[in-house]
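User: Continuing from earlier, I have the next pair ready.

Assistant: Great, send them over.

User: Here they are, in order.

Assistant: Folding the first of the pair now:
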Amino acid sequence: MKSNIALIGFMGAGKSATGRALARKTGKTLAEVDALIEAKAGKTIKQIFAEEGEVAFREYEIAVIKELGSQKNLVIACGGGVVLNKINIDRLKQESVVIWLTASTEAILERLKTSGDSRPLMPAKNQENEVQSLLLFRQPFYERAADLQVDTSGLSIEQVVEKILKKLANYAD
């Protein structure tokens, strides 16, 4: 039986907020991949992208996922692009049930507006086109990686957590 829950999905799907609530509810330890990358790099994600580029960021991501892959009793809130490297998913699946959090384009755009943080892969202009284009590109990666899927559109964090727990109760790995 896998003891970790790994949350994947597009930016704004609710991985961090859901991860925090799910960790509290289950008594598991929260591991936020982006925060661990920042700690490892000694700089913000935005700085990594600006100074070292996306390839360097993805290398940090692979290193962090490698460290988390064999740990137990975690809720792992992954970055949106973690699925782009198959090695990350292979490592996560060793000890994690991978849950794909989805959301409508409208919900994502609304959340990006209200989240107040800047996303390195999300320019201020043309966000709708950018979101749709990235979603379309990443969808097959998310589909391949996911053990379970939960649509977070129009749901509170508590409702998303309840849906996840219900799905996990019926899931046999």
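And the other member of the pair:
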Amino acid sequence: MHVGLALSFQNLISGQTDTEVYRNELQLAAQAEANGFESVWTPEHHFTDYMLTPNVSQFLAWVAGQTRRVKLGTMVTVLPWHDPLRVAENFCLLDHLSEGRAILGIGRGLGRVEFEAFRTPMGESRRRFTEYTEAILNGLETGTMEYDGELYKQPRTQIRPAPYASFKGRTFASAISPYSIDLMAKLGVGLMIIAQKPWEMVKTEVEGYRQRYLALNGMPAPKPILTIFVAVHEDRNEAVRMREVYLQRYARSTVEHYEFGNVAFASIEGYEYYAGLARNIQKHGLEKFNGFLADLQVWGTPDEVLQKLIGYVDYIDAGAMLVMLNYGGMPADVARRNHDLFVSSVLPRLKQYDVGGDIGVRHTTPAQAAE
């Protein structure tokens, strides 16, 4: 199975400088290929301690220069914050610099602080995401950007350098709301699953997506990419402590950054799903929801972590796994031990688990899927 390293660049430790955060994470990125990871990823975030990742394609270009084989993925590029033409140019350039190793991960964003700083109305994000995605995917296939939509209008323009290769099969979206999942099926885009929902709900939505994808595209969807935060330790009691401290702190930072408890989402077009989530949090309490988010992740001894990860892969029939190993205010030495133990005791066995192909590969033929 394809296993990638995801880097968060969180700065949740009092007194830690951004320079120290980058020094520690860049070391992990530079060593990823030698350590056996098959791809390197990072999300896009701005302006807060939550994640210091404002320019993902620039970071991935740096990784490309440090490596020769690993794929380079965005987890995700938030399209409403960008000019679509620049996104297409950036990924064409990254693909040339890396000789075809780029993976385009896209999403529409949720952080209010980021939308406000970019002066982009959140209520337009769904429509912008739909139009931008259509324009970018067509531009990456044809080498020409041209679009006449409600919110995005682009006169015919050539992309230079021209696309290195097709991005079909290597474009994925982080889709949480039911509308977004259905949209990805319509656009022929794979799913990137970041654990924020009950696994039973995720499985139901993935199955619905696969049915829609096949009906609309005449071929099966690529298997989804699964992103998990991992805490591993030889001592199970210490692994439990890592869950209680670092996974909980990650969960709390996520709830705070995205304002999951804000019922005002109900008044914002495209974010009605999150208003329901906020009401649920108000009913059951914020700490309980933090624990729920933490418990969607994986912690334990190396054997326990391996079995849990494989269990999630099997449950949703995933085709690739991305692991976060430094998060939630981990001191550098704790993060390094977590990373090194995963690399030595979990990664080799996880890579040996056969899911039928590499990331972005369609794992069945249309005829097989119809049987």
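Worth noting for the second one:
Confidence is low (pLDDT under 50) at residues 363-371. Residues 236-258 form the longest helix (23 residues).
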